[in-house]
Write a structure and sequence with these properties.
With about 130 residues, this protein is mainly alpha-helical. The chain contains four helices and no strands. Helix 2 crosses helix 4. The mean pLDDT is about 85.
Length: about 130
Amino acid sequence: MTKLNTRVTHHPVVLEQFAKRQADIQLRVADKITGFAGSMQFVYLHALVFALWMLFIEKSPWPTLTLIVSLEAIFLSTFVMIGQNRQAAFQQEKADHDYSNVDKLLEQNTELTRQVHDLTKELHQHVLGN
């Protein structure tokens, strides 16, 4: 059995975006929060806390619990939007980078095609003796 190569080569835009995110503490905190909020541990923790709250902390938990859950939903939706904005900015930057590379390749391909055409004409003239 062979060992798979686990080294991953990332797109330059991915590396640049990662470096930007690591340099900004607010973005790092937002990433940690959204990472945790999108996990099953988050779901389990909330189910446990809500069950304990309803069973042991308050006799009538609904008004306070509703307030807490509503506030949490507001903050979590904000973090989701932060993540969506980050993803949109990343996709735009990557698209711009890819377009730039494709445009350069198109120019190179066009120039090579012209050179091949010119060489073909020269060869044709040389072989036919025109």
